[in-house]
Design brief:
Layout (H helix, E strand, L loop, with lengths): L1 H5 L2 H23 L11 E13 L9 E2 L3 E8 L1 H4 L8 E5 L10 E4 L1 E3 L5 E6 L2 E5 L5
Parallel strand pairs: 1-4
Antiparallel strand pairs: 1-3, 2-8, 3-7, 4-6, 5-8
Length: 136
């Protein structure tokens, strides 16, 4: 029994440390940044009239309308990222993939995708009304 524990002890210790390191690395990747870090050097820019797309099944996408086709998005980031950021790199969308079609007024949050290094600070309006096919 003692031989089972202490035979190749160095390799076992190395394997244990390597496994702990891998677990820690994967946890950090999964969790991601917990709080958006904003430094005093960051530049804040507001983009008005950002087009909103509808994300749904291919056949359903054309059936729905939104009460507004555009939103205003405020983003922040370091000068290196903000100096090259262009309005066409900001994508706003409303996810309707789980829409059941039974609601008469349905408000959905607006999600915004931005390049790496840029943080979304505000979206106005934050939610848009979905108008089901029977109402338009």
């Amino acid at each position: 029994m003692r031989n089972l524990l202490f035979k190749d002890f160095g390799w076992k210790l190395f394997s244990l440390l390597l496994a702990a390191f891998i677990w820690y690395t994967v946890q950090r990747i999964i969790e991601g940044p917990r709080v958006a870090m904003v430094s005093p050097e960051d530049i804040r820019v507001q983009y008005g009239e950002v087009s909103v797309s509808i994300v749904a099944a291919a056949a359903d996408r054309h059936l729905f309308q939104l009460n507004s086709n555009t939103v205003s998005v405020t983003v922040s980031g370091p000068p290196v990222a903000m100096n090259v950021l262009q309005a066409n790199q900001i994508h706003a969308f409303v996810d309707l993939s789980d829409f059941d079609g039974k609601a008469t007024q349905w408000f959905r949050p607006v999600a915004v995708s931005v390049p790496w290094g840029v943080t979304v600070m505000n979206v106005e309006p934050a939610k848009l009304q979905v108008i089901p096919p029977a109402q338009h």
